[in-house]
Amino acid sequence: MPLKKPVNVIAVTDGDRAAQRAVEVAARNVGARCISASGGNPTAISGEKLVELIKQAAHEPVVVMLDDRGYEGQGRGESALALLAGHKDINILGVLAVASNSGSNSGTHVHLSVDCRGNLVDAPVDKFGQTSRDSGGTLSGDTVELLDKLKLPVVVGIGDVGKMDGADDYAIGAPLTTKALREIITRSEYGNGTRGH
């Protein structure tokens, strides 16, 4: 019997109600499977439970939400992300790094961002999705401090998921979150057709 390949996962560093609705819609838009139980502010389930749910998902890639609710240092969302990143059965394609006002000054570097107008920009954005070129090159958020250490293949910055003055509302299809997820898939080996299945 062949060895089972790791499950391809995209993590989103936000999980409040608006974010959850937007991520659920955006995941459907890109043909991914969203683990709704990973929503919450903060993340309510453990990393171990999340791995179980990911492995039970009907198809890939699997999108999960991880939220620290403004906790300084490594909170529940980041702890779960660290576990996923080091797990042999999980392959993280990329992370959607969500900007907020509550993050520490350290923040994280991003490969690119989706701004509030749906443009791809080579700089971080703030929670409103505005390009933030005076931020020292880092995106500030409450569940992002760990990202630089994890050396992830793709980190896409975005403003407050599901919000940004209505530009990413789930009722209009969460277009900004959809674009960000699609960008992660496109830039990953998954999007290049080497899915390992």
Describe what you observe in this structure.
The protein has 197 residues and is an alpha/beta fold. The chain has one domain (7-187). It has helices at residues 17-29, 47-56, 76-85, 147-150, 175-187; strands at 7-12, 33-34, 62-65, 90-98, 112-114, 120-121, 155-158. Mean pLDDT is 88; it is low at 193-197.
Key structural traits:
197 residues; alpha/beta; 7-stranded mixed beta sheet; 5 helices
Looking at the structure, what is the overall shape? globular
How much of the sequence is in beta strands? Answer: 15-25%
Give the fraction of residues assigned to helices.
25-40%
Instruction: Please mark out the parts with pLDDT under 50 across 5 or more consecutive residues, or reply none.
Output: 193-197
Number of strands: 7
Number of domains: 1
Task: Report strand order across the widest sheet.
Answer: 2-3-1-4-7-5-6
State the secondary-structure class.
alpha/beta
Number of helices: 5
Average residue-wise pLDDT: 88
Order of helices and strands: EHEHEHEEEHEH
Intertermini distance: 14 Å
Rg computed from alpha carbons, rounded to a whole number of angstroms: 15 Å
Largest sheet: 7 strands, mixed
